[in-house]
Amino acid sequence: MIDAQILPIQHRILAPIAKMFLKRDITADQVTLAGFGIGVLAAIAIALGWYQMGLVLILLNRFADGLDGVLARQSKSTDRGAYLDIALDFAFYALIPLAFAISNPAQNALAACFLITSFVGTGSSFLAFAVIAAKRGEENLSFPSKGIYYLGGLTEGFETILCFILMCLFPIYFSTFAVVFAVLCLITTIMRWRFAWHSFN
C-alpha cells in the first residue's frame, strides 16, 4: 500500500552500497540469488523454531531484494533480472508461512494454508495484469523503476514483510496474523480483478 512512497527512500539509502558492490564486480543477479538463498535459510530457521534467527535472515533477504534493483539501475537492467526478482520473491513469500506450519502443524497449518492460498490470488492477479499490460504497452508511472507493470494494493511488499516480522516476534499469534493478512490479501485480489476488468474492457 505504501511501496511507492518507500522505494525512492530505499534507493537513496542503498545507492552508495550498490556502488561498492559494482566496484567489486558483484552483479544484481548474484545478489538476487544470494538473497533468495538467505530467504530459504530463514524458512529453515523458522521451521526449526528459531524465530529470532529467522527474523534476522528475513531482514537480510529484504536488504538483498532492495539492493539488487539499485544495482541493476546503476549498471544495466535486464529482463532476466526482472524475472528472477519477482519469481523468487513470490517463492520466498510462500516459504515463510510454510515454515511456520512445519514448526507447529497443529496450531499453524490451517492458517498457513489460508495465507498461502491468498498469496496465490495476489500473485496471480499481479502477474497476469503485468503480462496483459506489457502486451498493451502500458506502464505504471507510480513504479517507474520496476521491470514489469507493478500493480499495487492493500498488501504489497512492505505490508507482507511487516506481517512476517510480527510473526517472528510473536510466533504464538501466527494464526491470528496469518488469517487477518490473508483476508487483506483476498481484498487486494478482488480489487485487482475489478481494476483489470475495467482496464482491459
Descriptive overview:
This protein is mainly alpha-helical and 201 residues long. The chain has helices at residues 3-23, 28-47, 51-74, 79-103, 105-135, 157-169, 174-199. 37% of the residues are buried. The model has no long low-confidence stretch (mean pLDDT 90).
Oligomeric state, counting identical vs distinct chains: single chain
Count of extended strands: 0
> What percentage of residues falls in helices of 4 or more residues?
over 70%
Query: Which value, in Å, is the CA radius of gyration?
Result: 17 Å
Biggest sheet overview: none
Order of helices and strands: HHHHHHH
| Uncertain stretches of 5 or more adjacent residues | none
Percent in strands: under 5%
How far apart the termini lie comes to 25 Å
Shape: globular
Average residue pLDDT: 90
Number of helices: 7
Please sum up the structure shown.
The chain has 201 residues and is an all-alpha fold. The protein has seven helices and no strands.
Name its key features.
201 residues; mainly alpha; 80% helix; 0% strand
What is the topological layout?
Layout: H1 3-23, H2 28-47, H3 51-74, H4 79-103, H5 105-135, H6 157-169, H7 174-199
